[in-house]
């Protein structure tokens, strides 16, 4: 008996409507909920396995948002890239929709697929660090990559705030962090990709090779291909970070200094946040979070002296580079311990044009009640020069400076109903669009086909052409709702 058969713990009779629940290696019989005649005889051999059990399908029908639930027919745990190619080819033939899943941390069902196949990329996590770049499989986490590169004195140029996201998941969206004002998004630091297209073809693409596919995949929301590995640029890694937290009385005061320090490239790392003032007064504080890497000795006076934060509010601390990048880990553990991590997260992520940012943020914050954002909800505001964001499908407003505004809502006990939060996202997205803004599509904003056309603007025809060429059956990533 072929040894690979035994790895098919459960197989979905996708396409034929049959449910094959297992293969018994002792008797050589398929275990099936349907009649034997319905079992497709053409299921491909795999090095990994296809799961049909309830636990796997229920997990794949959920994500960090806990708002959308599309139950797949089966979940592929690929044992190799070839498995991904073989199963996508099979699904294309049988017209079965397919979604790659990294960590399932998008919040609006983007990695889900009703009645289709979810490809759990987590089993493909190999990392090969070379001189100045790394070849990393798409299911690896950014924390894995960072841990692998630091011993070689190297680092990815841009890391997301939360490091436990998959390479493929963030490269499908963009991938932004505190160094984006210098190095762009994670998608701007990719040299080459290996992908499986919607026809089941395994292909390598780069700016010089199948450039149309390369540009359609980076920030392309999984529409044209599944990323199986990425060659990402690495930079010499700092060893330390001096972290500053500076508090401002108004959004305008905060963004004025954000604009200034970003323009001057004064810090290595720049972010921003809106926080509730202590004491329950209802007032807000506006935080500029910045870091200088490898500064010895740290020149606090030179870095902060002419900024306009509230004097006496500033905090500074020295951390190792890794601890600085991983500083959210402790908060995440805390949020898990109090149950907030598992609650619904109707998140809104949008890019605002620099000129409209102050007024829009001021009015959004003015209107935002604690119940609208939840107990552990967070408002973030990051300044990023547009020239740093080069990947065409990461759609940002056409101004020199853009701001990423995120309302990380949590439906805590006592907070607004999640459906109300989602509706508020929709209304705010309309305002953002009217002000020339775009969405960063990782959140929970109901988005129509017309919205997507508008979102991709001049790039819509090219994305649509790439879709026709590389996913002609239209089976990939339906959870995004783009096509
Ligand atoms: C706690 C938290 C913190 C975050 N912080 C940041 C941040 O600092 N910066 C930032 O930019 N974003 C951030 N995000 C958003 C995050 O980058 C995106 O939601 C990202 O897509 C999640 O990665 P994932 O591995 O969970 O992908 P999933 O949610 O599993 O997938 C997202 C989409 O990508 C597709 N996809 C997944 N893998 C592949 C692949 N290999 N090939 C093709 N398509 C694929 C899926 O089909 C789906 O459409 C954060 C999200 C959370 C929950």
From TrEMBL:
Transmembrane segments: none annotated. InterPro entries: Cytok_DH_C_sf, Cytokinin_DH_FAD/cytokin-bd, FAD-bd_PCMH, FAD-bd_PCMH-like_sf, FAD-bd_PCMH_sub1, FAD-bd_PCMH_sub2, FAD-linked_Oxase-like_C, FAD-linked_Oxidoreductases_BP. SUPFAM superfamilies: FAD-binding/transporter-associated domain-like, FAD-linked oxidases, C-terminal domain. Its cofactor is FAD. Residues 68-237 form the FAD-binding PCMH-type domain. GO terms for biological process: cytokinin metabolic process. Keywords: FAD, Flavoprotein, Oxidoreductase. This is FAD/FMN-containing dehydrogenase. Pfam families: Cytokin-bind, FAD_binding_4. Coiled coil: none annotated. Belongs to the oxygen-dependent FAD-linked oxidoreductase family. One of its GO terms (molecular function) is FAD binding.
